[in-house]
Every structure is written in C-alpha cells, then in structure tokens.
Amino acid sequence: MKYTELQESVFEANIALGNTDLVVMTWGNVSGISEDRTVMAIKPSGMSYNEMRPHHMVLVEIDSGKVLEGDIKPSSDTLTHIHLYTSFPTINAIAHTHSVSAVSWAQACRPIPAFGTTHADTFYGPVPVTRPLSEDEVNSAYELNTGLVIAEHFSQNGIDPTAIPAVLVASHGPFTWGADPMKAVENSIVLEEVAKMAMNTLLIEQATKAVPGYLLDKHYFRKHGPGAYYGQG
C-alpha cells in the first residue's frame, strides 16, 4: 500500500499517546499527512488503543474528506484535522487530547500564560484559546467550524503555528501539532505539564507576570531556529 509507512507512524504515535496519562478511554487521536499533502492517516473513531493495528489508521483524502478504502470510520475530529492541515502548511501531524489541566484552561476560556522557561522551551508565548463557537457553528458543521475558529484565531492575531504548536479550543480542549506524529504527541505532553505549572503558579501568586521577553527569547531560540544549540543536533 502506498501509505503504509504513514499509517505505521500514525499508529505508533497513537499508541504512544494512549500510553500517557493524557488519555482516558478513547479520548484522543493523532493524525499525520502524506509528503504530498493529499492524504491524511488518522485514528479510527472510538476504537480502543489495545485493539488498533497500523492498517486500522484510516486514510482520508484531504481535498474531499473521503475515506480512501475500507469501511472503518475515521475520528470524529477528522474535519478539524483537515482544516488545520490546509490552513497551516508547515505542520505534518496533529494530536488532540482531553488532558485534565489543558482542558481546565480551555473550559475557563483562558490562554495559558508563558510564566517561565519551561513553557518558553516549546511555546514562544502564551498558548492561545479560541473564541467560543456559536450555536449555529456547533449545530451546522461542528468539527469543521472547530478547525475554522482555530485558524481564525491564529490569523487574526498574527500567531505563527510553528512557534506556538498548540491551541485550546474554548470549552473543549487542546490540539497540538508538529513535524511528525511523535512530535505532535510530545507537544501534547509538554502542553499538559506547562498547564499544570501555570495553574500552580497562580495558586501561589495570582499576580505573577509573564516571563520577561529576553528570557522567553533565550529559551525558545536556543532550541528552535538557525541559531539553536540545545541537544546533539
């Protein structure tokens, strides 16, 4: 099969996500897009992580949203993923969870402030929260409109999805993305940790301010961009 390698990488990332404490039951999914950006592989809807195999990762055509083969239903979030791929051409994989701390910020409809260097290592500024979906948006094309409000927020606020590879959908939960499926999962893990840290920071001191810009710059750019020097290359 032409997309076997894509299915395998998406499967491995879904299993990795299922082995974290970010997912309860089947509350999460990972997708990845083909190199030519025409096909997406995504977790099947409602399938237990223990039951899944690589061939269960559903292949969906990006332009039409149609399943390319078989009768397994893709994740109910499929149209959200498709819209993010078409809106953010630099991302190659997406993860969605209902992790407790990140969801708590989403339910409060508050962005996660960049309080310190742990946050800055991955997210170049606060993790944004979208506006709430309207009743019509929920009832007409909920999953597509979820993608639309994410893209809308990034566009209207000039946010680079590469520099901030995460978002909170108001009253819903987090989506993260990355260069490959495992990186999208890694960003979900980091997001949950910084969400916890931010909550604890505000419990200790409600008046805490964002990390100074020079320190945000230092920690972000030592890991990202042409001048990065963290790690082994």
Explain how this protein is built.
- This protein is an alpha+beta fold.
- The protein has a single domain, classed as Class II aldolase/adducin N-terminal domain (L-fuculose-1-phosphate Aldolase), CATH 3.40.225.
- Helix content is 39%, strand content 12%.
- It has helices at residues 4-18, 78-87, 100-107, 117-120, 135-156, 181-204, 213-221; strands at residues 28-33, 39-42, 58-61, 93-97, 166-169, 173-178.
- It has a 6-stranded antiparallel β-sheet, sandwiched between helices.
- α1 runs parallel beside α6 and α2 (78-87) runs parallel beside α5.
- It is globular, with a radius of gyration of 17 Å.
- The two termini are 33 Å apart.
- The model has no long low-confidence stretch (mean pLDDT 96).
